[in-house]
Amidase (Verticiella sediminum), 394 residues
Amino acid sequence: MKSRSASPASAGAEPPGVETGASGVLLTLSLGSAARTVMVKDTIDVAGVATRCGSRAYAHALPARRHAALVEGLLADGWRITGKTVLHELAFGTTGINHHDGTPVNPRWPDRIPGGSSSGSAAVVAAGLADAAIGTDTGGSVRVPAACCGIFGLKPTYGLVDRRGVAPSASSLDCVGPFARDMDTLTAVMTALVPGFAAVDAPAALRIGVPALAAADDVAAAFAAALAASGAQQAPVRLNLFDQAYDAGLALINAENWQAYAHLIDDPRLGADVAARLRKAGLTRPAEVAAAAAVREAFTAEVDAALAECDVLALPTLPAVPPRLDEAEDLAAQIGITRYVRPFNLSGHPALNLPLLTSAGLPAGLQLVAARGADARLCAIGREIAQRLAATAF
């Protein structure tokens, strides 16, 4: 894999050390000397380190010559980069299972998947190994692992965070986004990732739009209780194209990942689960891509109209609690875990996961979606609602 990028490596950085993947850490690093620590997904270039995208197929990749633009931003803002994190191979999976680099252990629910594809980034934050971590989200790959591991995770507005030095180099869906254990830290990371980003206050009276979506009973109950505890005014909204948007998002990610990784399809080092999904992705027809583009335009307008009437939309992040590891080996059967998150990659709206628990103490998530470009407002609303939930025994 060729390196991509922004500026030369920091002088005096310590050489990387290889870790086992179970912790979620792939490599330990020491870039910068600040107290605040952050790790980055191994689809993101760090100068002097090969970007291997969680795959043996890139075992002999050359070290990146320059930092990704976002790495430069983190260092300039006073973050210390302490590691690269494990991911679902090629960032093309929802479970986070990686038989080559090791599957990160979900720190609070070790029998359940950590979620993918940014599994390691979520796991290291949940385990307290870093103050924050950076992942990428093409179809839920920040929000799903954040919900699975019980932390906060943000998919920003499409195009808001500079993707130079991030694999794949071209995507109409992918967004770089942060994980943290609290909203203040997550907002602080955004100030490093986005020039001019600044915290704002939440509206005095919140109005939340709630689409009618069916989740598993335990998740639906946790979601309803969280909305009630938020104290916000609720209003039903209709997203008639929601299911079509999900299908369109799948068509586009398949077409674009085939373009990016088709050259690996006959490489015996490619994991069997990802190879099977990639081969299927290669069957995506041009007519499906064209139809997806039409759905994108119509669904984006539908979400824009709904958000003109409320501050945010609220949905469950996951349709059900995360499956156990022994249930999750069939990658194709687990793609539906992204049913409530993938449509907002298609539309480009910012979307935030707030951690929730079911009555049985299992992980769920409250997903908040805001207008495009209103990422600071979304973070403020997320912080306000998280505070209200923490203060209420819901």
User: Anything to note?
Assistant: The longest strand covers residues 25-31. The chain has eleven helices and 14 strands.
